[in-house]
Each structure stands twice: as C-alpha cells, then as structure tokens.
Amino acid sequence: MLDSDDNGKLMLRLRLWFLVPLTVVLLAAILLIVMLIRHHAYQDIDHNTERLSALSDRLYRDQIELTANMLGATMEVLSTDAALRRALQQRDRESLQQRAEPLFATLKKKYGITHLYFSGPDRVNLLRAHQPERFGDTIDRVTTLQAERGRQTAYGVELGPLGTFTLRLVTPWFGARGELQGYVELGMEIDHVLRQIQYETGVKTFILIDKKFLERKRWEEGMRMMGRKPDWERLPDMVVNIQAQESLPAEFSHILSRQLDEGEKMMSPLESGISAYRMVIQPISDAAGRTTGKLLLLIDVSQQTRSVGQMIQYSLWVAVSAFLILWLLFFRLVSGVGRQLQEDQNRLQELATHDGLTGLLNHRMYYLNLEEELARSWRTGRPVSLLLLDIDHFKLVNDRYGHLAGDKALKIISEQVRHACRQIDIPCRYGGEEIAVILPETDAASARISAERLRRTIEKYVFEFEDSAGVHITVSIGVASSAEPGATSASLTSHADNALYRAKEGGRNRVVCAAACNGLADDAAAEATPVD
Predict the structure, then answer these.
(1) Nearest to 160 by CA among 143, 136, 182, 184
(2) 354-524 falls under which CATH superfamily?
(3) Which helix or strand (DSSP H or E) is residue 146 part of?
(4) Chain centroid to CA 34
(5) Contact 473, 458 (CB under 8 A)
(6) How would residue 527 be classed by pLDDT, with cut points 50, 70 and 90?
(7) If phi over 0 gives left and psi between -120 and 50 gives alpha, with beta otherwise, what is residue 18?
(8) Got the DSSP string for 273-327?
(9) What is the pLDDT of residue 185?
(10) Is residue 386 within 8 Å of 437, Cβ to Cβ?
(11) What is the H or E stretch that residue 430 is in?
(12) Maximum C-alpha span of the chain
C-alpha cells in the first residue's frame, strides 16, 4: 500500500505524464487546425480565381466568335447590294462612297461596327467609309492577305497602331463569271468584349500591349489625339490598352513591372492598401498567331480574405476555449487514472482469455486449461473427459434469420452450457459454432450422461427471433475421455472431433463417444430428430 506522501507523488507524476504531453499535443493540434483552415480557405480562393480565369478566357473567345458571326451575317447582306458591287467592280470611288456612307452610319449606330473598307483586287484601298479622306494605300494586314490566299472570308483580331485591338472580317467579292471584284472589310473594336467579361465575372479586366508591336511616337500622338496622357515608361515592356472600362490603378504599376514575364499564364496574390487581389495574366494572340499582349484580370478577394481572418480568429477562440476545458477536465480526472488503468488491465485480461460474443474462455485458453488438466490427471490418476459441441445446421439459422439471430442463438447455447457445468468444469468456445467443455475427474460414462443431458436441454429450448418464434435448434456432441497417462491435448481433441464428425454423419442431434471411451459403443449414442 502507498502512504499519502507516496500517493501524492504518484498523482503528481501522473499529472505531469498526462498533462505535459496533452498540452503539447493540444497546442500542436490548434496550430495545425488553424494552418489547415487557412490553407483550405486560400485554396478555395485560388480555385475561384482559376474558375474566373477560365470563364474570362472562354468569354473572350466566345465573344470574338459571336462578333465574327455577326460581321459575317452583315457581310452577306452587303454582298447582295448590287450598287455596291457595281461601284467596287468599276472602282467608282464617288459612287461607292455615296452608297456606303449611309450604310456604314446605320451599321455603326445599330451594331457598333467601326470599320468599313473597300479595296480593289490589287488590295489598293478605294474607300474607308469611316475615314473617307484616307485612300489609295495598299492593305497588307494579315486578314486581307489570308482572304487573298484562300479566296474566301478570313477574320481575326489585329492590333492597330494606337494599341487597340480590332476584330476584322475580310471577304473577296467575285463577279458573275468568277472574276475578283475586290475586297470588303468590316471591323469592330473589342471594347464590348472586355465590357462583357467584366460584366459576367465582376472582374476588373485590362489589356497590356507589347511595345515591340508599336511605334512610340505614333502611339503617343494617338493618345494625345484621344485626350489621353501617354505614359510609355509606366511598364518596362508593355503599355496599357485604352479599351478597358477603367484605368489600371497606378499603385499596381510597380508590382506589375516585376510580375510580367514570358510565361504562358500566371496567377499571383496582390495587395493594395486594405484591398487584396488575385492577379491573373494570360497571353493574347492576334490573327497571325503572334502573342501581342496580355489579358490582365484583377480579382478582388478582399472580402474572402477578411472572412478567412475572421474565421481563423474565431477558430482560435474556439480552439483555445476547448483546450482550457479539456486541460481542466483531464486535470480533475487524472486522480482516477490509476484506478482506471487497473480496471483496463482487468478488462484486457478478460479480452485476452475470453471470447467476446459468448463470454466463454477462448481457443487459446482451451488448450492451456486442457493441458493443465491432463497434467493433473497424470499425477492423480483420475480421468479427464472432453465434450465437443457443434450447433446443427447453424448456417441455415444465419441464412434464414440473419447473422444477428445466429449470434443470439450461440450466446443462449453458451449460457445453457455454462449453467449445465459443474464448478470445476471448464466451458470454452473452440471456434465458430463449436463449444468445448473440459470435464476434470470425469470418466467416459459420466461424460456421455452429461453430454446427453445437455443435448436434451438445448433441444427443448424455444428460440425466439425477430421474425420468427418457436424455433428449436439442436446440437451434436462428440465425447472423448482419457483415463491413462500419455494422452495429449491434441490427441484428446482429435478423438472428440472425430466423434463429433460421426455424430454429424449419423444424422445430427446426437451424442457419439470416441472409440477410446473405455469400450463404450457408438450405437449407445442418443438419437433425436431436429424440430424447426
């Protein structure tokens, strides 16, 4: 027994053994939880950014395609105008202008078409309906050259000298005999595409143009002509396209100068004051397939970032509160740890020696006890007998009534076996639906009588299951006995198992003794018929 001082020291050690590791583990768990919450929250933000990026890219392509289809339909209508065809074929600039200008005014007003060109078969421009004072130059743009080579409509986005993107559709017109009359071009700046992307996604959208495709002087003159302040040096290799709905915030210029590179696509966090963004940069190609610029998306994630911070703060409060409660709880419960450990040890001993379903000794303990009783039998000269019991048609019970019913039947039969045993008898679960009973100081005749009494008791018992009542279950029992020294647990078990096998083969619901049972005949075994 421990005195009060020893007990106090033991409890102090127990508290230290429990609470120090507990404190470390709980603090580590809190840190891990907070890190996981933050990781998953920012992962969600990144996933949403990827989704908006993919949506923006798809919207860009879809809007370009829809606009090209609209321009194609408009071109088909224009191609039916005989006056336009005749004027183009005859290169009658005055007639062409007189007919085209009102048409262009209508197209611009209704559909936002910003360019209408008429060029001869040699690609020399006859009329720009949107700029009638400019004519006589040769059109060498990619879409016109593609239409010339393919002798069919070509379209694509092309970069203008002022750093604006225009979707151009060029169609060669042919006469009745297949002769080339000239080329007609419709164009539309892509401002509406950017507006649509920003409207659909709620994302600030900008286009950056690679400087190598622009002439600085001409670009700066164009900016001043449109009332814009040119800022060629704002970014190292790019200028900001003027077709977006709003201007790129000045504070992003310094960050962008470090972020822009030659990669296909990139995504990175960006902060400006109290606002947080995810910046997505992806390349834009023109009709020739050249990467002429980049589409810049500024996705405002300020609200989500604040929510993450609030969630982390709330999680910390909850985790710390839970930590304190658990710590205090363990501190109070640790005084009972010793008693609980002893109870657990007893329970483990029970689990190690007994079957969990029936409560009988398990297979391992069966052999240990049988060997012990055989050793005692050799010393005292008194016999040891063994009953090996098997439930008849147990598989049918499981199949018909379910495995829960089978477990119930096995537990009830185990209880009946236990009640039928003497205090010195040792009932064990041998395995599956087999039960073994070790009968110390019992000869074969007495063992057979005990087995027959047990068989009849089980046969008379009425089992009640959920879906069926009044069910009878029978057992077959093999009996073996050893009255002479030299028998082993394996041989005695084998004799009992052989007797059980003969009981099963002989019709079940019977007791059969092994041949070694002091000359007892098998035909003296009890016989009965199972009743369902």
Answers:
(1) 143
(2) Reverse transcriptase/Diguanylate cyclase domain (3.30.70.270)
(3) helix 142-150
(4) 21
(5) yes
(6) very low
(7) alpha
(8) TTEEEEEEEEEEE-TTS-EEEEEEEEEE-HHHHHHHHHHHHHHHHHHHHHHHHHH
(9) 96
(10) yes
(11) strand 426-431
(12) 137
Cβ(230)–Cβ(224) under 8 Å? yes
57-62 LR contacts (CB < 8 Å, sep 24+)? 57/282, 57/295, 59/193, 59/196, 59/197, 59/200, 59/201, 60/193, 60/197, 60/295
Q: Is 112 left (phi over 0), alpha (psi -120 to 50) or beta?
A: left
Q: Looking at the DSSP assignment, which residues form a beta bridge with residue 125?
A: 119
Active-site residue, from 158, 220, 433, 434: 433
Question: Quick one: how far is CA 237 from the chain centroid?
Answer: 42
Q: Which residues, 6+ apart, have CB-to-CB distance to 484 below 8 Å?
A: none
Average pLDDT score over residue span 496-523: 79
Backbone angles phi, psi at 277, to 5 degrees: -130, 160
Residue indicated by tokens 């001869």: 120
- Which tokens belong to 279? 């910046």
Residue 373 known to be catalytic: no
Check: CB of residue 482 under 8 Å from CB of residue 438. no
- In sequence order, what are the residues at sequence separation of 6 or more whose Cβ sits closer than 8 angstroms to the Cβ of residue 466? 401, 402, 405
Q: How far is CA 360 from the centre of its chain?
A: 45
pTM (2 decimals)? Answer: 0.53
pLDDT value at 260 more than 80: no
Nearest residue to 513 via CA among 462, 461, 439: 439
pLDDT at position 231, please?
78
Query: Under CATH, to which class is 56-302 assigned?
Result: alpha beta
The structural domains of the chain, with segments of one domain joined by +, span: 56-302, 354-524
Could you give the CA distance from residue 179 to residue 181 in angstroms, rounded to a whole number?
Answer: 6
**Separation CA 255–CA 259 (nearest Å):** 6
DSSP annotation of 237: S
Report how far apart the first and last C-alpha atoms of the chain are (Å, whole number).
Answer: 59
Cα distances (Å, whole numbers) of residue 319 to 38, 312, 423: 14, 10, 56
